[in-house]
Amino acid sequence: MGFDEQVAMGFYVGIMFGVVLILKWGLKSVNIWVYERYLGKTTRERLPPGDFGWPFIGNMLSFLRAFKSGDPDSFVSGLAKRFGSRGIYKTFMFGHPGIIVTTPEACRKVLFDDDAFQTGWPKATLELTGKKSFIGISYEDHKRLRKLTAASVNGHKALSIYMQHIETEVVSALEKWSQMGQIEFLTQLRKLTFQTIMYILLSAESADVMDEFEKEYKTLNYGIRAMAINIPGFVYHAALKARKKIVAILLAIVSERRKKREADQGMSKRDMLDALIDTEDENGRKLDNEEIIDTLVMYLNAGHESSGHLTMWATIFLQSHPKCLKIAKDEQERIVNGMPPGQKGLTLKEFKQMEYLSKVVDETLRLVTFAYLTFREAKKDVDFQGYIIPKGWKVLLWYRTIHLNHEIYPQPNEFNPSRWDDLIPKAGTFLPFGGGSRLCPGNELAKLEISIFLHHFLLNYKLERENPECPMLYLPHSRPKDNCLGRIIKVSI
């Protein structure tokens, strides 16, 4: 190749490179033009730093890449490196422009200021969980529904009743697993927690629909935080089909239960469904079928996924930290030895005595951060820390970054229940169940389930994992790729 040809080739390469850069810049400007053009000049100038990413998909590719790489925290740390460490960034995710917040101050502001922020979950989550569930309704409706259902889930009387059933199921499951040989520990825990929430919500109907429900809920859960692409082959499409089946089953159950309760006015309340059917507000208004079904769908989904995963992680953490395991086991032995003669099973009294185990649960909640982010939406332009959060934009509260912040929790990646000995978390620094008016309504039930399981596991069993160094998956929730394959070994007679 002659000199002239080399120059020409270099010129053409340079032109092509320039075209690619211009094309990339142009494509990355599409979302900016679409979503910022209607904002006033002052608002545009005071938006947080950030990147809207590619047209339509925004930053979803970099988000998914980080979570599938084995380093999910690289997504937010990448933003901090590019745009500074103030912990507030503009973005485009899940089909909407939004603001990511990663600091306690920002999360506290968003969670507790109901005048400025409302629920803002993505379309996929709303459609699958239900527009009349807790996450889809207005502040006033949420307040009303929460008041009507609180006693059925977290009330002292309800928890006392649930304890008996949970303990019976845990004892039976552990004995069964110890005889099964190799099992997927997480899979079995999810079945156990699913059976528990089904009993709490639907009691007698549980046995008839258990297997079908569990299968459909697994499909539904994978679509909860997916992009709302309703085309065959996409996760969201399959999840919508699963929801239709779930709703059809629940509608039949609700309709039949209504008939029974109308025919027998003195019929006692057996479960949460009975309570939802009977309950009424101060104006005498009762819940309609759609409200009841969406409430059940939400509780069924949230009530077993988190408990199952967190129980697995608490077990793994304890077994990999022998000193912590010994302290926890000694505490449970003291509690059993201190029970009155003739008492069979645990009561809330013993549950409240599990002080170290409570720290184990809190440390697991912090370290795992099952719900690594949640969503709100600005009801008006909000001025915060010198930036403007525009009306209608989503706010993504990134809890995981807060829980792993070394300035808040020294050596944050270390499992250390004793860090809670003298620690009273400041507002916005410990958010495993969210916060504010929309705090997760089943938080006490979840802790109760985990603690009862650990009580019996610590006293009588151990876990032998097949692949302790198994690679991790982080979507939709953190878990070993093999679902914690191993054996449950009975260590006492």
From TrEMBL:
A GO term, aspect molecular function: iron ion binding
Main location: membrane
GO biological process: brassinosteroid biosynthetic process; brassinosteroid homeostasis; gibberellin biosynthetic process; sterol metabolic process
Membrane topology: Single-pass membrane protein
One matching Pfam family: p450
Keywords: Heme, Iron, Membrane, Metal-binding, Monooxygenase, Oxidoreductase, Transmembrane, Transmembrane helix
Protein name: Ent-kaurenoic acid oxidase
Organism ancestry: Eukaryota, Viridiplantae, Streptophyta, Embryophyta, Tracheophyta
